[in-house]
Amino acid sequence: MVLDAVNSVGGIVMPRLLEALGVECVKLNCEPTGQFAHNPEPLPSHLTDLCSRVASEKADLGIAVDPDVDRLALVCEDGSFFGEEYTLVSVADYVLSRRPGPTVSNLSSSRALRDVTEAHGCTYTASAVGEVNVTTEMKRTGAVIGGEGNGGVIVPDLHYGRDALIGTALFLSSLVRSGKKVTEVRAGLPQYVISKNRIELSDRSLIEKILEEIKKRYASERITDIDGVKIDFDREKMWVHLRKSNTEPIIRVYSEAADEASAEKVAAEVMDIARKIIG
Questions:
Q1: What stretch of H or E contains 104?
Q2: Adjacent-strand bridge partners of 75
Q3: CB atoms within 10 A of CB 248
């Protein structure tokens, strides 16, 4: 496999983990100089070198971690991006197959975790956005695994914090036991697409008015308002989440559906309602 540790502490701890697991590792950006070789956010646009290297090395897998090694991004054997939302989903699917129990992620994370959890006959709960909110809900529900859609995996048996080391170990264990290629693992998970948009405002006082109007318009759907407003369209298996920023005069609009067009459409609908209020 190929490892991209963005020239941070991951360049020390990740090779040690992989060596202990008997994994042959090609190191990319593993000198812990603190001089990041690229933007440290483990997103597709920042991991083009890793994707290319996985393909050229004919590696089974590519792994990228962020500077403090709490987020894990995966690259398939063909050089395609596994999807940061699916790191937690795939690891949870494996954990639940061996130890059934509740799961938790935040409101803006993929519905795929809920689908996988329910397929194992277990209960899924959504928390407000933020690691502390996820872990609080995990403790309340006795969750066996949880995390966030940014590649953060939390396994309480280890500790209540995102940890790319345990995420890596569990994913590799699942890969070995299944005998599948990474692309096959990804194809076997529920297929969703998330769209991320934003509404900019000059008047922050309009935010609550917009959120209240959205709740009224979609009152017939399942609404969660513990952190902004999330509308779940359960029949269509899609959702849209509006959440105000604490630092900027904006509302973040995340939506998810089975295809990009549907995710964009539901986002456009709520954004149109907001713009009419803004004027």
A1: strand 103-106
A2: 62, 81
A3: 12
- Residue 81 DSSP one-character state: B
Q: What tokens were used for 135?
A: 């872990």
Could you give the CA distance from residue 271 to residue 265 in angstroms, rounded to a whole number?
10
Q: What is the pLDDT of residues 34-92, one digit of tens each?
A: 999 999 999 999 999 999 999 999 999 999 999 999 999 999 999 999 999 999 999 99
Amino acid at 134: V
> By three-state DSSP, how is residue 117 classified?
helix
- Sign (positive or negative) of CA dihedral 16, 19, 21, 26: positive
pLDDT tens digits for 155-201?
999 999 999 999 999 999 999 999 999 999 999 999 999 999 999 99
Beta-carbon count within 10 A of 99 CB:
12
Q: Give the DSSP letter string of 202-251.
A: S-TTHHHHHHHHHHHHTTTSEEE-SSSEEEEETTTTEEEEEEE-SSSSEE
Q: Two tokens at 217?
A: 């318009």
Q: Letter for the amino acid at 32?
A: P
**pLDDT band at residue 256 using 50, 70 and 90 as cut-offs:** very high
CA gap 31, 28 in Å, rounded:
8
Spatial distance between the Cα atoms of 192 and 222, rounded to a whole number of angstroms: 19
Residue type at 240 in one-letter notation: V
**Nearest Cα residue to 145 out of 132, 133, 158:** 158
Return the C-alpha torsion angle 163, 165, 170, 175, nearest 10.
Answer: 130
Structural domains of the chain, with CATH: 2-75 (3.40.120.10), 85-187 (3.40.120.10), 193-278 (3.30.310.50)
Q: What is the mean pLDDT of residues 123-130?
A: 97
